[in-house]
Write a structure and sequence with these properties.
single chain, 178 residues, mainly alpha, 10 helices, globular
Length: 178
């Protein structure tokens, strides 16, 4: 269901932004442009709704991931899915393994797909990092990502051009390294 559909079904735009920021992959990176550019919220209101919504699922992931995985890995289908997910996540998380909490904050702060709070929380749980330190590092990372995305949203078309150019450069760099 899209945020616009949520609004037509009676949800307020604020709830649509809050719930959008809770979604994996989309997170705050998608909720802020929605709030600022589509619903025309003031940047501070958009930031608070997106930041708090993005962080809401994180304690649950940090606390419940390991027990849930242990239980679900008894089922073959889930075992192969978790093996794929964790292998992929660990490959992306070399900086977190090396620098722990600082690396986790940096990883989450980079406003690219698959580097957000959800992936950071999965990494922290996989690496056995401490709950409070992980939660704080993820919150710092989400805050920094929020500042970056808010700034780009406020720049309008110029922000979109900057973000697009950054993605192209990163993609080219990734292909060049490959």
């Amino acid at each position: 269901m899209t945020p616009q559909e949520l609004v037509t079904k009676g949800f307020s735009p604020e709830l649509a932004v809050f719930f959008t920021s809770m979604l994996p992959i989309i997170e705050l990176r998608g909720a802020l442009p929605l709030a600022i550019n589509l619903f025309h919220f003031h940047w501070s209101k958009a930031f608070i709704l997106s930041f708090s919504g993005n962080l809401l699922p994180i304690p649950f992931i940090l606390f419940l991931l390991q027990p849930a995985v242990r239980f679900l890995q008894r089922i073959k289908l889930f075992a192969s899915f978790f093996n794929w997910l964790f292998t992929r996540t660990k490959k992306k998380g070399k900086i977190v393994e090396r620098y722990q909490e600082i690396g986790l904050a940096i990883f989450v702060a980079i406003p690219l797909p698959a580097t957000g709070a959800w992936t950071g929380a999965i990494l922290a749980a996989l690496l056995g990092m401490k709950f409070k330190k992980s939660l704080f590092a993820i919150a710092v990372g989400v805050f920094i990502a929020g500042v970056i995305v808010t700034t780009l949203c406020l720049l309008g078309w110029l922000g979109a051009v900057i973000a697009g150019a950054a993605l192209i450069i990163l993609a080219a760099f990734g292909l060049w390294r490959f």
